[in-house]
Amino acid sequence: MERTESTQDTTAFNMPDWMIQFADQKREFNKRPTKIGRRSLSRSISQSSTDSYSSAASYTDSSDDETSPRDKQQKNSKGSSDFCVKNIKQAEFGRREIEIAEQEMPALMALRKRAQGEKPLAGAKIVGCTHITAQTAVLIETLGALGAQCRWAACNIYSTLNEVAAALAENGVAVFSWKGESEDDFWWCIDRCVNVEGWQPNMILDDGGDLTHWIYKKYPNMFKKIKGIVEESVTGVHRLYQLSKAGKLCVPAMNVNDSVTKQKFDNLYCCRESILDGLKRTTDMMFGGKQVVVCGYGEVGKGCCAALKAMGSIVYVTEIDPICALQACMDGFRLVKLNEVIRQVDIVITCTGNKNVVTREHLDRMKNGCIVCNMGHSNTEIDVASLRTPELTWERVRSQVDHVIWPDGKRMVLLAEGRLLNLSCSTVPTFVLSITATTQALALIELYNAPEGRYKQDVYLLPKKMDEYVASLHLPTFDAHLTELSDEQAKYLGLNKNGPFKPNYYRY
Ligand SMILES: NC(=O)c1ccc[n+]([C@@H]2O[C@H](COP(=O)([O-])OP(=O)(O)OC[C@H]3O[C@@H](n4cnc5c(N)ncnc54)[C@H](O)[C@@H]3O)[C@@H](O)[C@H]2O)c1
């Protein structure tokens, strides 16, 4: 797959005036209190294109009526009925969820503050299709604060938090989404966002490419007014590159998925936190002294290994790439072949993005009680299908936990049937989603305000300077004090004092 880096000279990129300049930020960092309120909630995760993440909590009353939201007449307190949610009366619960999320999304809140005077999205008509959760609600309301009009649908039929959708509708957002939509509902909701009298979108924010696909299929003329597409997921980005290759992409698109801040946080730091959470919630296990083998020492593998090592586990790594293998050695892990340790380990974790990494032969040789799980994108890494044979007994012992029992009584503990452990069984921290959401907001602002000709009908990465800006907006949370280059130092390094600080090829 060919990836197009932004062709523009990033050093020439002018940060809009309303953005905080780095020097200002330094001052702000010192002022801002660091304390962040937290609340623990039991949440479950759903996903659409299986590669973007959001957390979901629900206060939804189980006695909720079964009438389809499409058949209900609902109005918000201002009399508007331009929305379709499960139950508008749940808005107050949703508002609380949004307020909790706001506390861990400092960059979006900073953007709102900055935008009080200026509205960089004034006149923007954004149609969005993402998970509808508290975190995306913070994004949607931030876009509104920046001047945009938004219409929104869900990118996944299960992941909508009904309360949050209600809170958005109550706040005047035209949101069409509820948990448990049918396939038909799903497309109906997208259509209601797009097909509106007297309103045409001029920006698209997509997660998975379904909205973009729908507009291409049903309303291709709309692209005459659309200034750009911002896409978050691997799948959606892949579709955009295909369109671009076929010469069919008719507007510029921003690939948010591959921005540095998103990759690092989603893959490395998020997995470093959520691997332990996922294992703990499903098995109540203790990590100290356990022998673990982690397959793949990329970003995800590095995060998993670091977390387990810190908990006192004995960690082995398997790799096919000598560079990553050497990194594992330098980080103090034993590099092995899976066969060499499969009989002795207590936990097997796959993070390769590959297929059949753990085969039936490996599974046959594992010791009693071995826990097997996957942190990679798809459920192909562990050959789970090979376990569906008559001689093996499956016992569902908890939600997302199966015991697979061999004829001699040996039990293997399989988590989430080999699907992504953290997305299936734990949460994604709001702070991680904050980084993605900020990147999306800045990508929209950049595409919307870009002068004619800066972006062609191609797929771009966010300019490096904006990636740096996303990171800098999150620094105040940690009371972090960034060093400023002196004029002399900037000259010596050949850098602009305000960045970008690294070339595009730099690997963080
Ligand atoms: N769980 C999550 O929250 C989460 C977050 C981001 C990405 N992912 C997914 O996790 C997977 C890994 O992501 P990444 O960023 O670490 O990718 P990566 O490419 O950085 O790392 C994967 C590593 O696996 C190695 N590998 C491939 N085949 C192997 C094999 N047969 N045995 C041993 N090692 C092998 C590769 O050499 C590579 O170093 C991807 O599928 C990605 O989509 C999951």
Report on this model:
One of its GO terms (biological process) is one-carbon metabolic process. Residues 32-41 have a biased composition (Basic residues). Substrate binds at residues 133, 207, 232, 262, 266. By secondary structure, the protein is α/β, with parallel strands linked by helices. The protein has helices spanning 22-31, 91-103, 106-114, 134-145, 162-170, 183-194, 210-218, 234-245, 260-283, 299-310, 322-330, 338-341, 360-365, 421-425, 430-449, 464-474, 487-493, and strands at 44-45, 55-56, 125-130, 149-154, 174-176, 203-206, 228-231, 253-255, 291-295, 314-318, 334-335, 347-350, 371-374, 393-398, 401-405, 411-415, 459-461. It has an 8-stranded mixed β-sheet, with helices on one face. Helix 2 (91-103) packs across helix 5. Residues 266-267, 270-271, 295-301, 318-321, 324, 351-354, 357, 375-377, 420, 422 line the site of nicotinamide-adenine-dinucleotide. Nicotinamide-adenine-dinucleotide binds at residues 266-267, 270-271, 295-301, 318-321, 324, 351-354, 357, 375-377, 420, 422.
Short description:
The chain has 17 helices and 17 strands. It is of the alpha/beta class and 508 residues long. The longest helix has 24 residues, at 260-283.
List keywords for this structure.
508 residues, alpha/beta, eight-stranded mixed β-sheet, seven-stranded parallel β-sheet, 17 strands, 36% helix, disordered N terminus, binds nicotinamide-adenine-dinucleotide
Structural class: alpha/beta
What bound compounds does this protein have?
nicotinamide-adenine-dinucleotide
Distance between the termini: 22 Å
How are the strands of the biggest sheet laid out side by side? 11-10-9-12-13-16-15-14
Largest sheet: 8 strands, mixed
Q: Based on CA inertia axes, which overall geometry fits?
A: globular
How many helices in DSSP terms? 17
Average pLDDT taken over every residue: 88
Poorly predicted runs are 1-63
Beta-strand level of the residues, as a percent range?
5-15%
Kindly state the percentage of residues in helix. Answer: 25-40%
Radius of gyration equals: 24 Å
The total count of strands amounts to 17
